[in-house]
């Protein structure tokens, strides 16, 4: 039988193409798997790192939670001191995990975070059961992660299924921050609550600073001109 080198060359080329395609398929599968599994949690720094051992179980209401996650309020003697502790400025170290939202642009940050809530909620629920369960333990219990000062929903922010208890902008924005920190960082529950309280102070300066003054044991009636709410409901 006459041999045809061209046939062997063609067979070899086909084998190479099959092998190459299999490598590509494996690479794509690995990439898809990375998209659907929870991302590696970032280890972040800052004052909140000292709160890792605080247990929030049994705390009822915003005041108790605020006192627990801001122990430095005990040394605050006036409005300015409380403002220094609670009121955030600049860019949080986790800004990349919340779409670039920052404290110096509260209106646009509020809008973005509130609109992002359904997306981050569905992502965490689908891909990160541990973060989802922690979210329910925080948001569906009276830990003060809610928009209580604009809509009167009280200190519970989410229903037992994770949905926001209020349709305003503030509540879903606070929940979006909660979900993203649980999903993307190694923050403890207390550290997450602390950060969400900072955003809540940004959105409700007068009420949160007043509450901080009560926690510190000072008279909130001395509060000067602070806006009651930033952004609309």
Helices, strands, pairings?
Blueprint lengths: L4 H32 L25 H8 L9 H8 L19 H22 L1 H11 L8 H4 L18 H15 L4 H15 L1 H12 L17
Helix pairs in contact: 2-8, 2-9, 3-9, 4-7, 5-7, 7-8, 8-9
Structural summary, described in words:
The chain folds into two domains: 1-36; 50-222, no CATH class. With 233 residues, it is mostly helical. Residues 14-39 have low confidence and may be disordered. The longest helix is centred in the first third of the chain and has 32 residues, at 5-36. Helices cover 55% and strands 0% of the residues. It contains nine helices and no strands.
Distance from first to last alpha carbon? 85 Å
Number of strands: 0
The helix content is 40-55%
What class do helices, strands and sheet pairing give? mainly alpha
Could you say which overall geometry the principal axes of the C-alpha atoms support? globular
Strand content: under 5%
Number of helical regions: 9
Average pLDDT over all residues:
85
CA-based gyration radius: 24 Å
Describe, in short, the structure shown.
The protein contains 9 helices and no strands. It is mainly alpha-helical and 233 residues long.
Kindly list the characteristics that best describe this protein:
233 residues; mainly alpha; 2 domains; globular; single chain
């Amino acid at each position: 039988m006459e041999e045809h080198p061209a046939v062997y060359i063609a067979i070899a080329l086909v084998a190479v193409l099959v092998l190459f395609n299999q490598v590509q398929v494996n690479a794509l599968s690995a990439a898809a798997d990375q998209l659907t599994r929870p991302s590696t949690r970032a280890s972040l720094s800052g004052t909140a790192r000292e709160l890792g051992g605080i247990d929030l179980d049994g705390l009822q209401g915003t005041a108790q939670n605020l006192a627990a996650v801001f122990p430095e309020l005990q040394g605050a003697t006036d409005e300015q001191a409380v403002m220094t502790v609670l009121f955030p400025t600049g860019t949080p170290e986790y800004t990349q995990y919340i779409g670039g939202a920052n404290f110096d642009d509260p209106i646009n940050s509020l809008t973005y975070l509130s609109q992002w809530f359904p997306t981050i909620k569905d992502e965490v629920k689908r891909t990160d059961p541990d973060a989802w369960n922690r979210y329910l333990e925080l948001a569906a219990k009276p830990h003060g992660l809610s928009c209580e000062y604009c809509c009167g929903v009280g200190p519970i922010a989410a229903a037992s299924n994770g949905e926001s208890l209020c349709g305003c902008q503030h509540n879903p924005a606070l929940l979006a921050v909660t979900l993203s920190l649980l999903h993307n960082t190694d923050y403890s529950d207390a550290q997450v609550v602390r950060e969400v309280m900072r955003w809540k102070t940004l959105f409700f300066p007068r009420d949160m600073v007043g509450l901080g003054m009560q926690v510190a044991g000072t008279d909130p009636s001395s509060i000067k001109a602070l806006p009651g709410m930033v952004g609309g409901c």
